[in-house]
Amino acid sequence: MNLKKVVTWLVVAFVVFYVIQAPDQSAQIVKNAGQALGDAASSLANFVKSLT
Q1: Are 19 and 11 in contact (CB under 8 A)?
Q2: Which domain holds residue 48?
């Protein structure tokens, strides 16, 4: 088994463990990440719009 597969499975196991142990904090992290991605997309759209 190669190292990349082992590391991937360890990361997946850690994420599952964290979600089970702290679901509220996990939900907040996902919410914050979604907001950050939305803000980035909005900023990019404004930039492209300002080019025209």
Answers
A1: no
A2: 23-52
Give the integer Cα–Cα distance in Å for 7 and 9.
Answer: 5
pLDDT at 1: 66
Query: How far, in Å, CA of 42 to CA of 36, rounded?
Result: 10
9 found inside a domain: no
At 52 the pLDDT is 80
Residues of the chain with pLDDT under 50: none
pLDDT, position 31:
96
Sign of CA dihedral 6, 11, 12, 18: positive
Q: Is residue 1 part of a domain?
A: no
Q: How far apart are CA 33 and CA 16, in angstroms?
A: 17
